[in-house]
Amino acid sequence: MEYRCIVCDYVYDSQKGDPDSGINPGTAFEDLPDDWICPLCGVGKDQFEAME
What we know:
- By secondary structure, the chain is mostly beta strands.
- It contains no helices and 3 strands.
- It has a 3-stranded antiparallel beta sheet, with no helix packed on it.
- A hairpin with a 5-residue loop joins strand 1 (2-5) and strand 2 (11-13).
- The chain is globular, with a radius of gyration of 10 Å.
- The N and C termini lie close together (8 Å).
């Protein structure tokens, strides 16, 4: 599942992960560290919503 940042529209795709932040491909959004932030605008996980 993908999650979209409601501030800047960045999409976190669990199949791609976030390699620049040390997040391996296949990491579910729920498994991201609590201190993970959006790589584009810097907001926390609480500013993301699930995409359908």
